[in-house]
Amino acid sequence: MSRFSARSLFKWLARISRFGLAAFFLFTAIAKLVVISAFAQNVGELLTASGFDPQRWSWPVTIIVIVAEIVIAILLLLKRTIRVGAFAAALLLMGFAGFALFYVYVLKGEPLECGCFGGIIASQLGVSTALRNLALIIPAIIVWLGYGPRMLITQIPVSNPATV
Q: Using one digit for the tens of pLDDT, what is the confidence trace for 97-144?
């Protein structure tokens, strides 16, 4: 494969990843909004298992998660903020994965519906949820790299080591 076609392929992969992640985050946010009371209840159960007061924190955490997903989708769609959106997506996905692993291995929590997809797609909090979220970081990295500035190393002229 020629260098030109490899660059072109990566460029398209970055675009597909960008719009795919934006669609994913919009889908999950809208799905949560459709069943917001049930999602808030799921969040409350997770907070209870984590030692937080669900009466106080269920709705704020529910709103923060949904707003974060919508903001990330918008950041990925706006040309000037694509890399910020990719970075934010990776952070949020790492946070979700970390919490899932913390819940299973540290808290020894019982299987709970996480509500990741608003009840449209059943998903229990656990290792598979963590692995899915970690796998979704790959497209975020592709977007970060695909929409980044040219690498500095390609801009530095290479001198002949024999003449130095």
A: 998 888 888 888 777 776 676 666 667 778 888 899 999 999 999 999
The answer to whether 24 touches 120, Cβ cutoff 8 Å, is: no
Estimate the crossing angle of helix 127-135 against helix 82-101, to 10 degrees. 160
Using CA atoms, how far apart are residues 163 and 4, in angstroms rounded to an integer? Answer: 31
CB-side exposure of 87: number of CA atoms within 13 Å?
6
Is residue 44 over pLDDT 60?
A: yes
Cβ(116)–Cβ(31) below 8 Å:
no
**C-beta neighbour count of 91 within 10 angstroms:** 14
Contacts of 92 (CB under 8 A, 6+ apart): 68, 69, 72
Q: How far apart are CA 48 and CA 4, in angstroms?
A: 54
User: Which residue in 5, 22, 27 sits closest to 139, CA to CA?
Assistant: 22
What is the rounded distance in angstroms from the CA atom of residue 105 to the CA atom of residue 60?
26
* H or E element, residue 8: helix 3-34
